[in-house]
Amino acid sequence: MNIITRYILSDLLKSFFLAFAAMSVLLIIIGLVQSAIENSLPFEPTARLVPFVSVEMSRFTIPMTFLLAVTTFFARMSGNNEVIALKSLGIAPRTYLYPVMFLGVIMSLASVWLNEQAVTWGRAGAAAVIYNATEDILLNKLRTTHQFVSPNGEVTIKVRGVENRRLISPTISLKNKSTFVEAKYAVLKINFLEDKLTVVLNQPKVSSEDNVGYIGEEYIAELPLSTIVKKESGDKRASDIGLDEIPKKLAECNSVYESGQRSMAAQRTFSAGIGSVYHWNNAGYYKIMSEQKKQIERLYAERQRRWATGFSCLFFVFLGAPMAIWMKKADTFSSFFACFCPILLVYYPLLMYGMQGAKNGTLPAASVWIANICIALAALWFWRRIHRY
User: Fold this and answer.
1) Tens digit of pLDDT for each residue in 67-102?
2) Lowest mean pLDDT: which of 23-37, 139-153, 292-306?
3) For residues 230 and 27, what is the distance between their CA atoms, to the nearest angstrom?
4) Cα(24)–Cα(43) distance, rounded to whole angstroms?
5) Residues 296-318: what's their mean pLDDT?
6) Please, what's the b/e burial string for 326-353 (b: 16 or more CB within 10 A of its CB; e: otherwise)?
């Protein structure tokens, strides 16, 4: 059995790493191109995104490539009558499937860990790269479209062209100050420590609601960097919080929610004492409590989702391996697609349904495991079929 186990695991891992490398390269290229297009990134910042995009994509590639490796290997093994040969020696399929299940547990734990790294390290690192490349992004947009509008619409920059990082005939309009600045050329400088964008304009003409006039040979405009680039708010979404941070965040949300309940109870007691129906309800307390309740539900759902999606590797293998043996087809990709199509049409819709219900509070947080349970029930039928004779 040690020889059979080594044979199965070695061939299985070879197929997995080959498929994982090929699919990872493809998805990384797609992710880099998408980020470069969305953020107008030049080549150098895009190249720095590679490790962060790799972690983000690997959590999606591991379940699918492991399923591909398992189904193709056992389909080939069954199609070549190796399963029948092992049965003739008195070796039941479960004997050599258990090590594969154990490998599925290891892959699942790795997937959970990569999911955590993608949230805590990957997304933060990618955001930092994009933020530090603000000047290049701004110049790239001005070079290609000759116009830049800040995310909040407060600042609009138009140019005739860009030469060697210098803006030709720039015009800057500030919506909140009703100010319009024209110049012969300008140079951008970003100070990340002071969170400022400095624009040095040559031969400027400044216009406002009150007056129009020239201001010397040079004019320096300083703008908060937050008006140019959209920074993440201090309140993170549940999907951006690490598993180790979720208990602390839950305690904070529960504390605010309970404080709101106590304040509401005190107000209603006071209103009942003075006989005032007007002060019975407070929309402010309701809003705070509703927001905290939603955040609490999402945090509970997110914690379950991380483990459920991570352990999809184990459940995919639990279904894919016996299905490939049962089909007895040497055509390896037929077994993979026969397993992948139900997963695509059933597993992911059920996962989204359970996740959405858990986030809204209409279903318990454990509902995100519904999809995995359905996969396990279908897998049990195939396990019984391959062990029947």
Assistant:
1) 999 999 998 888 888 888 888 888 888 888 999 999
2) 139-153
3) 26
4) 20
5) 93
6) bbeeeebebbbebbbeebeeebeebbee
Question: Among all chains, which residue has been given the structure tokens 């290229």?
Answer: 29
Residue among 229, 235, 249, 239 at smallest CA distance from 128: 229
Helix, coil or strand: residue 71: helix
- The pair of structure tokens assigned to 21 is 């490398």
Amino acid identity of residue 318, one-letter, is F
> Is 215 strand, coil or helix?
coil
Side chain identity, residue 352 = M
pLDDT tens for residues 32-70? 999 888 887 888 889 999 999 999 999 889 999 999 999
CA distance linking residue 152 with residue 174, whole number of Å = 11
Q: What percent of the chain has pLDDT over 70?
A: 90
DSSP letter for each residue of 320-374: HHHHHHHHT-S-HHHHHHHHHHHIIIIIHHHHHHHHHHHHHTSS-GGGGGHHHHH
Please provide the distance, in angstroms rounded to a whole number, between the alpha carbons at the two ends of the chain.
20
Report residue 140 as tokens.
């790239």
Structure tokens at 211: 């007056």
236, with CB counted inside 10 A (0-12, 13-18, 19+), is middle
Q: How big is the chain by its Cα radius of gyration, in Å?
A: 29
Strands (E), the chain: 147-149, 155-158, 161-163, 166-168, 171-174, 179-182, 185-191, 196-202, 205-207, 212-214, 218-224
With beta carbons less than 8 A apart as the criterion, state whether 138 and 228 touch: yes
Q: Supply φ then ψ for residue 213, to 5 degrees.
A: -170, 165
Single-letter amino acid, residue 292: Q
| pLDDT, tens digit, 9 for 90 and up, residues 113-171 | 999 999 889 988 988 888 888 888 888 888 888 898 887 778 888 999 998 889 999 98
* Calpha distance 299→12 (Å, rounded): 36
CA distance readout (Å), 185 to 175, 214, 309: 21, 14, 53
Q: Pick from 273, 306, 290, 274: which is nearest to 361 by CA?
A: 290
Q: Which residue has 């391959």 as its token pair?
A: 386
Task: In whole angstroms, give the CA distance from residue 341 to residue 349.
Answer: 12
